Structure formats: structure tokens, C-alpha cells
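Homework-ish question, so no full write-ups if that breaks the rules, but can someone show me the predicted structure for this set?
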Amino acid sequence: MTHRFLSHHDLALLAADLVASGTRVIAPVRAADDLEQIDYLPIQKLEDAALGVRVTRRSLKEFFLPPSEVLLQYRQTKEGVEIREVPTVAPPQVILGATPCDVAGLEIVDKVMGWDYRDELWFGRRDATTIVSFLCSVMDHTCFCTAVGLAPDSSRGTDLLLIPVEGGYLANAITPKGKALLQRCPGATDASEAAIAGAEAAQQEARGKIANNLAAIPAEFAGWLASHYDHPVWKTIALRCHGCGACAGVCPTCHCFDIVDEHDSSEEGARRRNWDSCQTSKFTLHASGHNPRQSQSERFRQRIEHKFSIYPTRFGEILCTGCGRCARVCPGGMDLPEIVGNLVALSKAEPEGSAQ
Amino acid sequence: MNIYQPHLMRICEITDETVDTRTLKLEFKDAKIAEQFQFSAGQFGEYSVFGEGESTFCIASPPTRAGYIECSFKATGKVTQALRRLAVGDTLGFRGPYGNHFPIEMMKGHSVVFIAGGIGLAPVRCAIWNVLDLRDQFKDVTIVYGARTVGDLVYKRELEEWAQRSDLKLCLAVDPGGETPDWKGLVARIPTAVEQAVSTAEDTFAVICGPPIMIKFTLPVLTKLGFPGERIYTTLENRMKCGLGKCGRCNIGSTYVCKDGPVFTAEQIKAMPPEF
Amino acid sequence: MKELQELSRQLLADDVVKVVIGYEEGPRGVRAAFITDPAQTGKLVFDKRCVQNLATYLNPRRKQVAQLGKPAIVVKGCDARSVAGLIREKQVERGNIVVIAMRCGGVLENSEVDSELTSETVSVRCAGCDVRDPKLYDHILGELPPEPPVNPRRTEQIAALEEMTPTERWSFWNEELARCIRCHACREACPMCFCVQCTADKGQPQWIDPSPTPRANRAWQTMRVLHQAGRCVDCLECERACPEHIPLGLLARYVADAVKKRFDYAACEDPTVPAPMGVFRTDDDEEFIR
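A: Not a homework solution, just the prediction itself:
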């Protein structure tokens, strides 16, 4: 990989160039309702962005799997039904300033979205998007990306990784899309030795900041979870959980959805898919009234099992990027890194078989 | 290709099996799809009433008959109630076939015992006709079917057809108290009916569908007869939405009912966590 | 705090209750604690970071909490109004709970960071507090602290809303509610949203579309807040729970103010005082019937 160097000015020019060419550019921006908070929003120029301030409140997920999207529209009359298809090709967009955890989350969810049946709505947006991620500098004590096999300088899922150095950024093009984006920067130069060394130091420092938050989750944990569904720990693990699903909303990897039909008029309407969460009481409720997950403890167990056992077993990926948003947003004080840490410790203390 | 977009189907026939169970016979509106459509016994689909939503049912007709598919359902929720309001000629949506299927190929050259209770006959009936349409490729065929009352028996015209055939053994049963004065079948619950009708597990596969409680009490009977868990096939249902493995709703532990099922062996079910 | 810990220890050791629902230190400030072991009562804390209304854990839908057994619950005066509401609406029997009321001089808006209580850091819900000395209790602890500083933000927001024309108000709420993702965290966190089947979850008929569209979001939020009229205690759990930072408390407060104006009623600590929406009186104002 050739390391290239972009100055701050080069990046600003790139953003301006993209916007001028009609490409939507999304970056971390100070929120209108609270300037201390950061959201991913469209920008017109690089100055509008608030890079390196704080982890955004929401993940990048909504740009690929919107909270609600139309799957089809229908028109139903006495003559029959007419379906109006939705486009599966999306307009080009660039995410500028994503955190590595958010970007890795996209690649992790790609696995289920491409499992046998290719979700063209998801991939249409993925294909149309170029992602520029930055070395993370906004980690706090709730982050734990290193525990789930990622890192603040992870290049998973990104097209172009920028590492802040003196005067600008070390630019690593990871994919052809990233390379193409770099080629739009006439000012880009080969990186100097000093820049490369500076980047390396910055990466080491960043990794050091997170590594102590939560120890790496051992490979055996997935299997332990699968064989300990009946462990008594589940009974009290979710007492304070409200079952609200706020965690799923802000999570970069939660992708569960509902499909509903809605009328717009007596003849027309749409079939939509909406964000949903296994934490809600009705998620698995049968029409008969039977609910395989009747209690919050079973529902919370499902969250842990899905993320740390089921998804790894099926797709080889932990369904979590350690971004910490779930812990930050939970009104009930459920702290995922704390809970996972406790469960891992339990799995080491009681490794064999099923508990009595 | 939007995987969530259904095919349009026309209802060509409606049969009321019982007071609350209805069968719809559907044909694809698109002749090309009709020609190409294939599925295997045990697979399911997402049937939709536009404006109301989608509902999950197995394909109740056999794959050996081309040109149409059938589904049978009870009106329990929003979508099934809406399905009941449809008439011949109306349009509904269909996505499928999804899921795995009964191991018809593997069962060839062997005997098969089909056991069903109530509306559980729907997925089994698909497999029964699949087998009967290829009758000479199987050894003995036994069908044990029952319901709470005579009125609850589904596919009554086919039960009569099967009763006339000499190449299968049919045992019909209704629960004690569910018989009518002219009832000629057994008066017994399914586990008892199976004990009477099935004499050997040798070289035989068992396919069983019905209410969970029926399965719970029939499995020990099959085990006693000598059926190993890997030769007992059943179907599981769970709340579903996408039907194709993405919405994260139907899993039992790491098993996705829509992808790994809905057909499972008793052995596989034993290994599942208590989540269904 | 020591008093609270000792009282809790005693209640558990004497088997008066099976669980004490209070506050404990968590990785991100204080959070709900469910102490069943008398030896663990040292975990209980009570200070200005204890903003959460714990009454929500008495909701009978929370089966696992109910299974722990008869609870003692730590409440501030404001939270006690939710407990009274649950008793009033027959969700909780007075004799089945032990109420440990804490005299309180205000709580912080941001409970994660302990800081001085000022008019900027104090929660908006503390403005005009008249329950520093709670009336609903089995045990009452703590010294009566001075009145909390007043955070003017809520009053300012309400005043700003009232200055707006209907069109401007419509625009304001549309913009705020556009962010709603229908996670229903507001409902799940609310002590008074205890319905086994919420109107929004009904499919037959589908009163409210489940999708997070502007139309459906408006319907959901206004319905919820109207269902809370006369029952909401302004604890702001809905606003704290909302992952989209929608000022739900503002909407709830607006309705509470309307109830006060029309019915001269605010949710109170006395479960025997009936709420206006829950009772029919022959002298009810019927001017809306023409």
C-alpha cells in the first residue's frame, strides 16, 4: 500500500468537489438541538463538519438501512393489483469522517444481507457509497472495539482511511473506490517518512487508550453462550432493562426489521420495512398468543446470544463493534461492556457443560 | 431484483375445510413465472393481502402438480382475517418458496408413516401427495390423521380418496367425544391411533405435524416403536417476517426456522435451546 | 445514605421485603439496583444523581422483578406520585409494597457526572417542586434540604411554544417528531404506561401505523401524551429514554398544564384522590358537548 498525504486544504477541496458534482457528502456535524452532541448529517463544505469531537449519537446504519423504507407501493382496484417497484440503485454518496467502528459494522452486516438472498436495497446503497474513515480520536471509557477484534485504526469496511498527522492526513486507500477518491485530490502527495512515523505513533496511542476498557473476548465465549441458555445468570441479568430497544436503534450492527403494509388511501398503500428490536415484548409473539421469549431475561439473552454467539457461529463475525452507544443511550443503565465482561468471567469460571 | 417483492397470484378456488380453516388455490398471474416455478415438499411462502400484510404458510399442494399452489390457514390474526375476506378472482401476493424441505429423495425406496393432527395435515399433505404421485418409488405408506372432532378434519375429500386406495393404509381418528354417529374411524387421540396403526419402524421414516401437545405425546410412541430421532421429521413454526434469514426474528438459538427449517428432525429439535 | 442502607438491610434481614429497589453505582453514574441480599445493601446510594424514577419497576408487566417478591422502593417525592398513580389505577396494592421516601433537594439533569446543583445543572423537573418532604411513605429518610435552584429552560420552552402561531407550532413538532424511530423507549420507561396491549400495538384495527413516518409518529406521540393526561408526573423518564433526544417531556408538560387549567388537578401523592380522566362526575364540565 502506498501511503499518500492529504493536507487539510486538500480534504476541504475534495469535499467541495464532491458536493459540486452532486454527490451527497455526510460527515459528523454538531447537532442542532445540542451543540455538544454530534450526528452524521449532510454537509455543504468541510467547515460544516465537526471532526474528532465525540462519537456520534447514531451510527451509519440509517444511510443503508433507513428506520423506515418502502419495499413496494401498490394500487388495488376491482381490476386487480398494480405493484410499483422501488429503485435498488442509489445516488452516489460519500461518508467523510466515519469512525472505524461504524464502518466495520457495515461490513459485518453485509454478511447477513448477502446470505443466499442478496438484499439489493442494502447493497444498492453500499455500492453507491464511498467511505472515508478517520483514525478514532473520540474514544471514551465506554468504548471497547478492541475487545471484539476491531481497533481505532481498523480499515475494515472502509474505502479510504485517514490518519491525522502534522498538517493533514496520512491517506491509505484500502479499496479501488478509495483509490479513485484519492485520485480526485490533485494536491495529494506521497507521504513523507515523518508522516508515516507520526501516523504509526498516533495509531499506537489510540489502541492503547481503548485496550484497557474491556479484555478481548475469547473465541470460546460463543460456544459457552450456546451451551448455557439455562444458566441462572440470565434470570437477573436484565432486571433494570426496560425492553425499549433504544440500544438496537443506535447500534451499528443491529439490523432486525419488521415488514408492514400501510394504507395511504382506500386504493393505494405501501409495504414498508421498519427497524425493530428483539428487546420488545411482542417481537416473537405468535398470533396464537404464544411467545417463545416471554420475559425480559429471555429477550436480553437473545441480544447477547445473537451478537456474541449466533452471528459468530453463522457468519464468523461478532455482531458488535464495541462503539458503546447502547451503554450510553440505555435509560435503564444496562451496560453492555460490563455485562459481557461479567459473562466472559463467568464462562471462564464455569467452562463446562450446562449449569444446574 | 427486490427480494421483498411478491409475485401476484389469482385466487382460482376457495375451499372451506372446516368452520375456521380455508384453503386457497392460487395461480401465478405471470405465465412465465407459472411455468418456471418449482418447489419442494415442506417449503413455505409469505402470502400477502396488499394493505394488510404478509403471513407465513407452508405450500400445501404437492410439487408434483404444476400450474398452481395451495395454502391452508386459520383466521387468527390481521392478515389471515383479511385473507378470509378475499373471493375467487381476487389478487394476493406470494414470496417463496423458502426454507428447507422434507427429504423425499432420501425416503425413496423406504416406507413412510405420515402423522398429522388438525391443520397440521397441511404441510404433511403436500408430502403425502408428493409420495403418492411417485407411489412406486416408495415401499409402505401409512397415514394416521386425526382431529378433535369430525368437523375439524381438513381435506375431507382427499381423506375419502385416500380411503379408497389400496396402496396405502389410512387410519383416521377423532378425540373421544368428537365422533359423529356415523363415524367409522377410530375414537382415540393421535398417540393411541399411532400405536394401533403403526407396527414397525424398520426401514421407515416418520413425518409428523400437529399441535405441540400432540407431538409431545406422540414422539415417545414413535421412539418406543424404534424410530430413531434422525428418522422422525416434523415442522416448526415461529413468528416470521422476511422468511429469508435477514430480519432476525425466527431464530431458535442459532437455528433460523426460515433457513434451516421449517423441516427438522426430532434429533435436531432435541438439541435446540428452550426458545420455542 | 447510611440510614437508607441500614433500613434496607433491616427490611431484608427481617423478611419484611424480598427486594429493595433503589439506586447503585454503575459504570455510567447511578442506576437502578435490585438488592435481595441484606449483605449487599451497602451498594445503595442516594444523592443528587438519582434522577431516575424507579416506580416504573413496579409495573406488573415486569415479571422478573415481580418474581423477586415483595419490594421496598426508594422514591423521591416526585416519584412517589407515580407510585400513588399505580395504586390509584389498581396496578399495585398499597399493602404489597414498602415505600422508602427520601427527602430531596433536587437532582441533576445529567446524572452521569456529579457536579454542583445550579440553575443550569438541575433537572427541569425540579422547578417548583412542592414534594421535597414526601407524603406517601412507610419510611421517610433524610434531612429537609433547601429548595432546589430553578432551571428556567422548561418555562422558557413552554413560553416560546405559546408565542408560536399554530403553523409554527405544527412545524416545530413535525421537525422534532420526524426523528422518532418508534422504538417506544418512552413508553417502556414510563411508570404509567403499563397497558398489556398498547393501542399502538393493536393490529385489528390498526389505529396507528407502526412505521416511523411523520404521520404515524405524530399520531403515536400525541396519543401517548393524551393517554397520560392527568396521570403523568413529569418525571421525564420518556425524554431521558429517547435515543433521538426528542423533547417529549415538553409535550407531556404542555398537556399537564392544560389538565391543571381545565380540571385544577395535577398528579399527586394521594392515591385516594381520583384523576380527572379516570372518573365520571355529574358536575363534569361538558361545554364540549353542543
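Now go work out the reasoning yourself. Hint: Chain C is about 30% helix and 10% strand.
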